[in-house]
Amino acid sequence: MELQINRSEILSQSKLLEKFSQYSGVSFLEINIEVFIRRVYDKYLWLYNQKENEKRGLSDSSTVKAILKYYGS
């Protein structure tokens, strides 16, 4: 399963949660790290599967490109 292959990479990014500690959902994600891992991977798959013409706005497009570049796609 691809989630297991990418698990360690996603888990290494959990330290970034500290930057968003002011948001209420972050404490839940810090306690429930499996939810964090699945949420990050779900978001990656969602962005990966979008067609170029379905992407919303320049900021979203640049974010998608950055994420795809990070994960080597």
How does this model look, in words?
The protein is mainly α and 73 residues long. It has four helices and no strands. Helix 1 packs across helix 3.
The tally of structural domains comes to 1
In percent terms, what proportion of residues is strand? under 5%
**Structure class:** mainly alpha
Largest sheet: none
Helix content: 55-70%
Spell out the helices and strands N to C.
HHHH
Overall body shape = globular
Rounded to the nearest angstrom, the radius of gyration is 13 Å
User: What is the overall pLDDT average?
Assistant: 76
**Count of distinct strands:** 0
Distance between the termini: 17 Å
- Residue stretches low in confidence (pLDDT < 50, at least 5 long) are none
Kindly list the characteristics that best describe this protein.
single chain, 73 residues, mainly alpha, globular
Please sum up the structure shown.
67% of the residues lie in helices and 0% in strands. It is an all-alpha fold.
